[in-house]
Specification:
Layout (H helix, E strand, L loop, with lengths): L1 H21 L4 H79 L4 E9 L7 E4 L12 E4 L2 E9 L4 E5 L6 E7 L4 E6 L4 E8 L9 E4 L11 E11 L4 E8 L8 E5 L17
Antiparallel strand pairs: 1-2, 1-12, 2-5, 3-4, 3-12, 4-5, 6-7, 6-9, 7-8, 8-11, 9-10, 10-11
Helix pairs in contact: 1-2
Amino acid sequence: MFKTKYILTFFIVALIIIFCARIGWLGSFSRSLTLDVSGFFVRVVNYPGQKLSYFWNLYQFRSAVLRENTALKLQLENLQHKYDQTRDLQARVHELEQMLNLQRDYDFELLPAPVVFRDEFSWSKTIIISRGRRDGLLPSMPVVRGGVLIGKIVEAGFLNSKVLLINDPTFKVGVLLRPSEAAGILEGRGEGLARINFLPLDAKINIGDEVYTSGTGSVFPAGYHIGSVIRVERDERNFYQRAEVQLAADMRSMETVTVIKHAPPNLSLDPEPPEEK
């Protein structure tokens, strides 16, 4: 209360001095003093408004920047989505081209099959495809994607079939390594990996060698790519080698696979062109 009284008195005195100076009662010095005092009061009165205007402009600028950033993020997401769609379409076109080339060069039927379920939790590595006995599918038919072996059908229902993937521990297939031409038996080892057992001890196997189906037996045709060697182990006691393989197919991103309804007889890894007559 005491401070308020003094402040009010100060303002009243200041107003009286300003009034007297304006009408010329206090001389030129007083007018100069009054101008300074009044300027000070004007600055004091205008200060909150200036600060408010500054912060308001700052808020508007920040809001505009945030809106622009949001619009740019949305535009970037749309471009990324279009890029992913384009890349997926390119992969599908490439796969279809491979299918058409195989159908043109060799006399067997390929049937595209959408993947409808992927078992991510059980020990066995399987997928369900929306093709079955009504489409002519039977157990043991090979399943590929482009020129890469994916697995084989183990159960064929009327509408759907179960495919055992190549990375399943129970999956086995005869393989051939290039360029060493060493033959062995490949078995699945889980996500993205497989292992070749019983390779000859004297075979010159190197990291990076490519692995293909050998065509031994009557289930899998020869010449389908499986993966590449990433590690070699020698077992001197048992007189053979083992090779760990990085599988070529990404089992987690498959949307469509292809079933070989009739395997070709002994498709060579480097088929020779037909002789000219």
